[in-house]
Automatic annotation (TrEMBL):
Name by which UniProt lists this protein: Protein lin-41
GO terms, biological process: proteasome-mediated ubiquitin-dependent protein catabolic process; protein polyubiquitination
Species this chain originates from: Stylophora pistillata
Listed PROSITE patterns: FILAMIN_REPEAT, NHL
InterPro entries for the chain: 6-blade_b-propeller_TolB-like, Filamin/ABP280_repeat-like, Filamin/ABP280_rpt, Ig-like_fold, Ig_E-set, NHL_repeat, TRIM-NHL_E3_ligases
Length: 474
């Protein structure tokens, strides 16, 4: 604020001063405010001399109503300066018209600034009020949503309660029906004492059939035992099955020795010779040998008999280029490994090609010169993927890869040119490796159980690898 001139000589009327500061309509209100303010300020000056504008402002804040402060704050400060100068007895004008105009502008700008701040505060208060309203709305919405969710959860619990009760009632009715049926069946039984008759089996009247067949290594042998009583009547096989004993020597060269019931009342005696040679067979009933036992039989090398030619029908652009392995499942589906085309073909029993699986590559489901295949079950096969050094487990119905195991290397579970694959009697996977001259016996999970052979000295010009036809046991 501009300094008040020291040339003040006389006190100008306060109304005239207010008219210069405030035009037209505001003059009356400004003068009334100014006169009211001057009287209060004069009272303060009589008690003590104000030494700064800040002291005058403090008095203003304690005496002026709140709604007038923004209008006359700066005017009051100027008035205090005038009163102070007048008290010193100066008789000259205290300032020029230009200075008064400047003072007026300062007062006006200060009042406008106060109004702007007041407007800003009103906006802030309005925002607070809107935030409070929004909070209330959100609270009401959240409250309704919580109530709705709670009601929904209660309804779901009630529904499950009804379903559980209905299920329990159904189970109760079913159990009661079965219990009542069993009760009626027991009540309907003839509880009279019966007579148990022991009918001995006559050994010399229990012949063995099937001794005139040709026996081959690896092919199951089956005899038929016809147990009879003394009167020649065939005895129920369930009565004596556990009394029949089948012995075959040498025992280490046979597998799957079983005695099974047949539908016609006889018993089936089975075993599988592993290798060619002479075998001694002995059958006992209740520890007593049959009159035709002991007998020997000769097992020959397994023979392949051509019963016909399989006419495989390809789809367009399909052909054999280096087929090297074939496998057939129990449904007579046929899988052929086509080595040079890097794929396998699946045929039905009529010889029609159902699908081609794989192509050349290293990704799962792709092959590099596959060499062998076997069925794990009617839908799944294992393929020896030679130059990818792995075994692939594939579903023939979808062509999808279920698992792969193995990689190039010398350690257990690794391969170098796996060329042949089969299952032994314990359902273990047996793999021959061409490059390392060894055999790995593995679980179906692809974990190596043990190995046979190694990659030691050999005739590099004549690699010797045997395709597996014998069961390993450890």
């Amino acid at each position: 604020m501009p300094q008040v001139s020291s040339r003040f000589t006389r006190r100008r009327p306060l109304r005239q001063f207010a008219e210069q500061l405030f035009p037209q309509k505001s003059v009356e209100s400004s003068c009334r405010s100014t006169e009211w303010t001057q009287s209060h300020v004069s009272q303060g000056l009589q008690s003590r001399r104000l030494r700064s504008t800040a002291e005058a402002t403090a008095i203003l804040h304690t005496t002026v109503p709140r709604k007038r402060k923004s209008q006359i704050l700066l005017l009051t400060v100027s008035t205090l300066h005038l009163s102070d100068l007048h008290s010193h007895g100066s008789s000259k004008p205290f300032c020029s018209t230009k200075q008064l105009t400047k003072i007026k502008e300062n007062i006006t700008s200060g009042a406008e600034m106060v109004k702007e701040k007041e407007a800003e505060l009103c906006e802030v208060i309005k925002e607070f009020e809107e935030t409070i309203s929004e909070l209330e709305r959100n609270f009401a919405t959240a409250k309704r949503e919580v109530s709705r969710k709670a009601e929904q959860m209660i309804a779901n619990v009630r529904q499950r309660e009804r379903e559980a009760i209905l299920s329990l009632e159904t189970i109760r009715q079913s159990r009661l029906e079965r219990i009542n049926a069993a009760k009626q069946e027991v009540e309907s039984l003839d509880l009279k004492l019966g007579v148990i008759e022991d009918i001995p089996t006559v050994v010399n009247q229990s012949p063995i059939e099937g001794l005139d067949q040709t026996f081959q290594a690896g092919v199951e042998v089956e005899f038929t035992l016809c147990p009879k009583a003394a009167d020649g009547v065939t005895i129920n096989q369930a009565d004596i099955k556990d009394q029949v004993e089948l012995l075959v020597e040498p025992a280490n060269d046979v597998t799957n020795v079983t005695v099974q019931e047949k539908e016609d009342g006889n018993l089936s005696l089975k075993f599988t010779p592993k290798v060619p040679g002479a075998y001694i067979v002995e059958v006992k009933i209740n520890g007593e040998k049959l009159p035709t036992c002991t007998f020997s039989l000769t097992v020959k090398e397994r023979e392949l008999v051509i019963v016909g030619q399989l006419d495989l029908k390809f789809n367009e652009s399909q052909e054999f280029k280096g087929p090297c392995a074939i496998a057939v499942n129990k449904q007579d589906d046929i899988v052929v490994v086509n080595t040079n085309v890097h794929c396998v073909y699946v045929f039905n029993k009529e010889g029609h090609c159902l699908r081609q699986i794989g192509k050349e590559g290293t990704d799962p489901g792709q092959f590099k010169y596959p060499t062998d295949v076997l069925f794990l079950n009617d839908n799944e096969i294992l393929i020896a993927d030679r130059l990818n050094n792995r075994i692939q487990h594939i579903n023939i119905q979808t062509g999808s890869v279920l698992k792969t195991f193995g990689q190039k290397g010398e350690g257990k579970g690794s391969f170098r040119s796996p060329i042949s694959i089969c299952l032994d009697d314990s359902e273990r996977i047996v793999v021959t490796e061409f490059a390392y001259n060894r055999i790995q016996v593995m679980s179906k999970e692809g974990e190596t159980i043990f190995t046979i052979g190694d990659s030691g000295p050999r005739d590099s010009a004549n690699h010797s690898v045997a395709f597996l036809t014998k069961t390993f046991s450890r």
